[in-house]
Amino acid sequence: MIPVADLRKWLKAPKADDDILEWLERGAVAFIERHTGRYFGEPEEATVMLNGSGRSVLWLPDAPSKIEEVKITGATILVGDTVQALGPDDYTLSGRQLISRREAWPRGERNITVRYTRGYAEGEAPSDIEQAVLGLVSFRYRGRGSEGVSSRKVGDLAITFTAADMAAVPGLAETLAAWRSAYMG
Fold this sequence. Notes:
The protein has two domains: 101 residues; 75 residues, no CATH class. A hairpin with a 2-residue loop joins β8 and β9. The strands form three sheets. Strands 1-7-3-4 form a four-stranded antiparallel β-sheet, with no helix packed on it. Strands 2-6-5 form a three-stranded antiparallel β-sheet, with no helix packed on it. Strands 8-9 form a two-stranded antiparallel ribbon. The longest helix has 19 residues. The protein has 185 residues and is α+β, with helices and mostly antiparallel strands.
């Protein structure tokens, strides 16, 4: 999310610490993803199966950059277990909302499959999330383990960001709450 050269510059860290900074950045992004239920990594394809609501709007867990495919499965659309693929004229995308241009998404359990591209190219992540990552990395880099790290393995290194880290980084809890997915309750 944040290039290691930018982290190094911000923290005035030596190049010799690049591996540590990269590792801390990955841990911070993972922490933020766990606490928001959202994906903030590099662009990747994701597939989700959603319950048809009988309404015109479905909520995706992430804001897609591109919808690859939408399929409706089951007898609610066609007879039998056949699959109907929808085209871009059948829906519109607004943030995380997939809005049917038909009457409504058919009711059913896991009857709508959406394949989409999610994530952010370098430098395109939301600025408040980048600031949250930078705050976590800064806190851990400057503390270097003195704050009671519990273990998470990344290669040969281990770290876990904790709820205590949220209190130590100004604005972090509010940022995470604002981005928290509806899927997390």
